[in-house]
Amino acid sequence: MKNMNKCSLKSLVFFVSGNRVANRAALTDMATGMVSLATVGVISVILGIFSQNGRLVKIWSYLWPLQKPEPSVLDSFDIRNSSYQFNYDHAHSVRQENMHKYDFKYIPRGVDRRSNLSLQEFIEVYDSKWPVLITDVVPTWKASNWTPEFFLQHYKDDRVTMKAVHGKMDSGKGLALPLFLFLQNIHKSDEMMWTYLEDELFLHTRPELRKDIGDCKYLNEDFFSLFPPSVIPWNAMMLWGTAHSRSSLHIDPYNWTGTNAVLSGTKKWKLFPPGQDHLLYVVHDRRCGFPLDCFKYNSEVDTFAVDEERYPLFKQARYIEFEQKAGELLIIPTGWFHQAYNSEVTLAVSSQVMNSQNYLVVLEEIIKAGNIKRSSLPLHFATLSPKGQVKTVASLLSPDILEKGQKLTEKILKEVQGNVERS
Fold first, then answer.
1. Is residue 261 within 8 Å of residue 219, measured between CB atoms?
2. Which DSSP string do the residues of 204-243 spell out, in sequence order?
3. SS3 state of residue 120
4. Is 216 in the same domain as 101?
5. Could you tell me which residues come within 8 angstroms of residue 326 by beta carbon, excluding any fewer than 6 positions away?
């Protein structure tokens, strides 16, 4: 090591006499040093000082990696010291760079329909970067065969939660009624009167239905499973809407990566790239109502019937509009506001993902809502693997929070079910 340092220092200093380099030995030493450094994977010229006409000239240092590392969406960040904000510009830059690796003809400002998509390409081009429609997953699920007749035969008296709208969307009322009443009126709707079944727990509490929702390799990395059962977000939300029914414009709880699988019918979507909150009239300081508390990010704007006088800035917002057909799975990245519109009677299932591409975003939401204190994270937190960081946060949840989560689920189930028991 001592000899190599001596050689490197010698090779960094050149004596210039006229227009020739006088010290040929220094050139030899420099070449030797460069080869030595190349064996450890990098050539580094730290600083050269030339003496010319009595002046010193500084040469900037540079690095030449022999193999360029893969860019990561999540930069190294210590969430213990400050709040985390996802770098969407960086994510888009990573996507653009990775698109050159593949032969697929991407839609630059639209949503690609993909089949036979490799997991590697999904991670590099879409996950936490850009929405995508997967066309060859949902048709393999048993749930794709669900029909109104099937539910009437087996679950007609089971209560479900729904939203009934007469007039503008903000006039909607929440109801819990037997499923057969919803299905009896499922074809009665117009632009100003519609009903949307939105039930977080119907499938969650019926494992025989939940298993009909098959596997998806793009969603298998699930860090939510590392949390105690009482606070794991309810997965597999049942969505069954009449024609003209729609969701609010929102970002999903915890700012997770969202999914929506259409089993039958058709949805229209408007998705808003990040960074436009100031144009969307987001309502702040609302809570999500999940077992593990979080903030709720909803907009007052109905993008399918915009009140331009009330929301004049909205017309400046950029969005992607497209249609999702039966058998297609939509994956929505973290940070994208979105609204769905059911063009016809449509049955779908939504779910969520927390993985190595978005885990810091979700952890920040958990901390922000007051579930744990940032200062309670251990000093070595940033050195842990993504999974290790999630496990650490989960382990810091107090018994009171875990008990509260369990009681909240039981309370909601009791309110929905009333005195009706499924035979």
1. no
2. TT-HHHHTTS---GGG---GGGGS-GGGSPP--EEEEE-T
3. helix
4. yes
5. 144, 262, 263, 264, 265, 266
The position carrying tokens 């888009």 is 92
Q: Which residues contact 109 (CB under 8 A, 6 or more apart)?
A: 320
97 plus 17 within the same structural domain: no
Q: How far apart are CA 24 and CA 18, in angstroms?
A: 15
- Distance, in Å, from the CA atom of 335 to the CA atom of 83, rounded to the nearest integer, reads 16
Range of the domain at 16: 2-65
Assess whether 163 and 279 both reside in one domain.
yes
> At residue 310, does pLDDT exceed 80?
yes
Q: Structural domain tally of the chain?
A: 2
Instruction: Specify whether the backbone of 254 is left (phi greater than 0), alpha (psi in -120 to 50) or beta.
Output: left
Residues 98 and 158 in one domain: yes
The kind and range of the H/E element at 383 are none
231 and 330 belong to one structural domain: yes
Beta carbons within 10 angstroms of residue 195's beta carbon: 23
359 and 393 share a domain?
A: yes
The sign of the dihedral angle between the CA atoms of 71, 77, 79, 82 is negative
Maximum Cα–Cα distance across the chain: 100
The backbone torsions φ and ψ at residue 14, rounded to the nearest 5 degrees and listed phi first, read: -120, 140
**Residue in this structure with the two tokens 């593949």, named with its chain if needed:** 102
Residue 187 has pLDDT above 60, yes or no: yes
pLDDT of residue 136: 98
Residue 63 has pLDDT above 80, yes or no: no
Mean pLDDT score, 114-126: 98
